[in-house]
Amino acid sequence: MPAVASLEELKAVEEHLGQLKAEYPEAYADVVELFRRHRKVGYKNICKMMMGEATAEKLKGLE
Asked: Would you kindly state where each structural domain of the chain is located, as residue ranges?
């Protein structure tokens, strides 16, 4: 399924990811592994927790 974002937006993200990978290779690899290991949780839920927008309890509707 094609991405909703424009090609320009996707290329900007791709470039930023490349910069982060070059500047922080170990941390980048750790984050990639976190997403890979917890794929079934969903990247959107992981991102919400990373950005402090949600907790596990809030995502489960317990809060």
From this structure: 7-59
What stretches of the chain show up as alpha helix (H) in DSSP? 7-23, 25-37, 43-50, 56-59
pTM of the entire predicted model = 0.82
In b/e form, how buried is each residue of 45-57, taking b as 16+ CB within 10 angstroms?
ebeeeeeeebeee
Tens digits of residue pLDDT in 22-61? 999 999 999 999 999 999 999 999 999 999 999 999 999 9
Rounded distance between C-alpha atoms, residue 27 and residue 19, angstroms? 12
Cα Rg of the chain (Å, integer): 14
As a whole number, mean pLDDT of residues 2-10 equals 94
